[in-house]
Amino acid sequence: MQQLESMYQEIILEHYRRPLHAGLREPFDAEVRHVNPTCGDEVTIRVALKDSSGQPVLADVSYEALGCSISQASVSVMADMIIGEPVTEAMAASEEFLRLMQSKGEAEPDESLLGDAVAFAGVSKYPARIKCALLGWMAWKDATARALNARDDGPHSDGDREQL
Amino acid sequence: MSLDVARIRKDFPILDRTVRGGRPLAYLDSANTSQKPRQVIEALTEFYERHNANIHRATHELGEEATAAYEGARIKIAQFIGTTDETEVVFTKNVTEAINLVAYSIGNATSGAGAGRLRLAEGDEIVITEMEHHSNIVPWQLLCARTGARLRWFNVNQGGLLDLARAGDLISDKTRLVALSHQSNVLGTINPVSQIAERAHAAGALVLVDAAQSVPHGLMDVGSLGADFVGFTGHKMCGPTGIGVLWARRELLEEMPPFLGGGEMIETVWMDRSTYAPPPHKFEAGTMPIAQAVGLGAAVDYLGEVGLEAVRAHEHDLVRHALAALAEIDGLRILGPPRAEGRGSAISFTLDGVHPHDVSQLLDDRGIAVRAGHHCAWPLHRALGVQASTRASLYLYNTHDEVDALAAGIQQAKQFFGGS
Ligand SMILES: Cc1ncc(COP(=O)(O)O)c(C=O)c1O
Fold first, then answer.
1. Cα(B17)–Cα(B26) distance, rounded to whole angstroms?
2. A161 domain residue, yes or no
């Protein structure tokens, strides 16, 4: 049970039971849907950008997620962390989170970058669950890249949606 | 005739090990892959230590021994599935390859000058079912895309049975092939293959049966099943990975164009064309998984010695016990037939408020190995309105205690995730 509790930290269970920022909101610049093909977990993410002092900032990140506690909690923690943040900082956090997930439980996560997301350190010991924790982050990265592109090409259309 | 489970368990060395820091292993994932008895492991070792050589082409004593062992395995497997003609048994790497072999052979018959009953044209139809494993869906989607044939399917009702009311509409003179599973890897449902095959044959269609989940329980008599093709996979029946089987009626194998080309499948090769070996070798291109075929022969010997009737009676008893234990758990929904009668030993379920991944993680922490997800049957899960499920699957070496541990573990998962 001890190892298991190192994965299912109380903060993870909290986010799972009461997810933050859930639901898809308007307006948004890009929307993507990502699926974990091994278990069917799904997440749809919308990203809305704004400019602040000349750099893109995440005005909103909204989502709809179906899946296990790890994937649901991870997307909730992520949204809470990055909404209102500059894209560059959120990208740095996502790189650090990826590094943490690939660490097999060995990494000393940078809490200043990751905040509550350090709670997922225990997940990295379970190879089958790493994808669950990464699902939301990967979808967010994809949505943000599309949103940045869409800004260069004018307002969004439904064509931004990823077809699955 | 009853099974001495304690004795059986001694044959499976892996069942002795502990997992997750000292917990005894309760392996409830045999529908995924079964464990291997010592007899099979030893057959592999003995083959490599004493008889290893390539088959059919080595002109020395070892080559003779290896060939005899490989062809001997083919004979054992033929007997195991109820045929006396071992040339109807084609070795493949798994059931997925067996199904693809048929699909690609039909495709090759269509683009070449294949026999009429194997050729597909636009307007022709292939009928499958919603409860198929992806292995018995995707090859047909690909074949339809290549040939212009149309894919249709039987629906599954909420009880986990095929909706046969539409059979008359689905199977018509446009139908060229009906492909279905004998036993569902998710629901445990045993499909009325003979009844569907009769209808398909009356319409002039061929019938392929994915028997990956029925052959391991000794439920196969190709003579009475009524199918034209039967595929199964060695690793789910105490055999090694890397070996599977396609059985087909001899005259079909003769008509079918090859799937893979290469060494050993030919009769004569010129620079611009070739003629082919007679079946089964026409379909066994390249160096085959020789030791694995020998291992599969040892696996059917093993199952035969244990006694298939005893295996089935034991499994039936376990399934009844498991269904009763699971029915006690509030918020647990069994997918598929709720009673043990006429049902196989894969038991999938959902648990209100707890995702299957989390259920299986908690069980794993207690040493209980199950599978979580859609079990390669995504359309089936969609049809049942569930995103994923947890599956416990039982085999000859499982015990009542393991089933009780499963039920207790599920209760614990409910508490762990349900609290607030
Ligand atoms: C019904 C069914 N069909 C096909 C398969 C695929 O088996 P394999 O991966 O050995 O080809 C499986 C098992 O995974 C199965 O249960």
1. 10
2. no
| ipTM of the complex model | 0.84
Residue type, B47: F
Residues 6+ apart with CB under 8 A from B390: B348, B349, B350, B351, B356, B359, B360, B363, B370, B371, B372
Last residue of a domain, one of B274, B304, B334: B304
Task: Kindly report, residue by residue over B239-248, the tens digit of the pLDDT.
Answer: 999 999 999 9
Distance from CA of A124 to the nearest CA of B (A): 14
* Residue B112 banded pLDDT, cuts 50, 70, 90: confident
- The answer, yes or no, to whether any atom of ligand 1 lies below 6 A from the CB of B393, is no
3-state secondary structure chain A: CHHHHHHCCHHHHHHHHCCCCEECCCCCCEEEEEECCCCCCEEEEEEEEEEECCEEEEEEEEEEEECCHHHHHHHHHHHHHHCCCEHHHHHHHHHHHHHHHCCCCCCCCCHHHHHHHHHHHHHHHCHHHHHHHHHHHHHHHHHHHHHHHHHHCCCCCHHHCCCC
Which range of residues forms the domain containing residue A126? Answer: 2-152
Does the C-beta of B133 come closer than 6 Å to ligand 1? yes
Q: Distance (Å, rounded) from C-alpha A19 to C-alpha A23? A: 10
